[in-house]
Design goal:
By secondary structure, this protein is an alpha/beta fold. It has twelve helices and eight strands. Strand 2, helix 2 and strand 3 form a beta-alpha-beta unit. The structure holds 1,4-dihydronicotinamide adenine dinucleotide and (2S)-3,4-dihydro-2H-pyrrole-2-carboxylic acid. This is Pyrroline-5-carboxylate reductase.
Length: 260
């Protein structure tokens, strides 16, 4: 089974690294091409994947074709490769393109999986939304879905929910990492080194995520209450954050992401 990536940018590279980590595909069974040879050739050398000369060659040589280009190039590339897609599975990670839009460009009904992964797939701790068409069945479906299951968690979603999923989970790592950086910068302000402050902040986020995910009936706000000792330092900090508009700034950020 061979898998090919058209577009070898940040997201394709993260997926490929996660697939190799998980031994899901041998690097020699992963084919890549993009417009930027200066990016994909060093990446192919570093990881052992096979760099080929054109998008069409990726589609010809592989069983599963992953469309991972910038959104503006997606329709052009689909038109370019559509004659090579019979008997293949097409996986699209294009944020803004629905399964029906893809089918309309291709013109025939081939198995299609739409995936919205996040960058954390590189460490096999990703969160990926999935949707498919009726032609994706049997072994082809099992293999396509497994491709993302080995990269972390998957969540089947109606396509109408992809925009909000993308804002929280797809863009989310940028927002969470921004928060980690804000916490660690505050640590530096009070004398910690950036390295130790970053580790302390990231570990705290990991611990809180673990507690929320493993709690049977406690909400995040229950944990907030548990930390806020009466008359203590946490409630003072929380109220100062809210005075500066913490919750509102997060919601406004998600609004802007969804509306883009
Ligand atoms: N970066 C992320 O966290 C996520 C990205 N996505 C989606 O993944 C796709 C790629 O995003 P990134 O990797 O962040 O972008 P990127 O800019 O890092 O990579 C885009 C790649 O597409 C290639 N490309 C552009 N036009 C092409 C063409 N005509 N033929 C072949 N290759 C072409 C570029 O050379 C580059 O390798 C986007 O559609 C985005 O919506 C989805 C979820 C998360
Ligand atoms: O910023 C973007 O458009 C893509 C979609 C989700 C994450 N990155």
């Amino acid at each position: 089974m061979k898998i090919g990536f058209i577009g070898v940018g940040e997201m394709a590279q993260a997926i490929i690294k996660g697939l190799i980590n998980a031994n899901q595909f041998d690097p020699s069974d992963i084919y890549v091409h993009s417009t930027h040879q200066t990016t994909y050739e060093p990446f192919a050398k570093e990881t052992g994947v096979v760099a080929v000369d054109s998008n069409i060659e990726v589609a010809k040589q592989t069983d599963i074709v992953v469309l991972a280009v910038i959104p503006n190039a997606a329709v052009v590339v689909l038109n370019e490769i559509k004659s090579q897609l019979a008997d293949k599975t097409l996986i699209s990670i294009i944020g803004s393109l629905s399964v029906t839009e893809i089918e309309n460009v291709i013109g025939t009904s081939i198995p299609i999986l739409r995936a919205l992964p996040n960058i954390n797939v590189e460490g096999n701790v990703g969160m990926t939304a999935l949707a498919d068409n009726d032609a994706l069945i049997g072994d082809k479906k099992a293999v396509a879905v497994k491709t993302f299951e080995v990269l972390g968690e998957v969540s089947w979603q109606q396509e109408s929910k992809f925009a909000i999923f993308s804002a929280i989970a797809g863009s989310g790592p940028a927002y969470v990492d921004f928060f980690i950086d804000a916490l660690s910068r505050a640590g530096v302000k009070y004398g910690l080194t950036k390295k130790e402050a970053t580790e302390i902040a990231a570990m705290t986020l990991q611990g809180s995520s673990h507690m929320v995910l493993n709690s049977k009936n406690q909400t995040p706000m229950d944990f907030v209450d548990a930390v806020c000792s009466p008359g203590g330092s946490t409630v003072a900090g929380l109220l100062a954050m809210e005075e500066a508009g913490f919750m509102n700034s997060v919601i406004k950020g998600i609004d802007a992401t969804v509306n883009r």
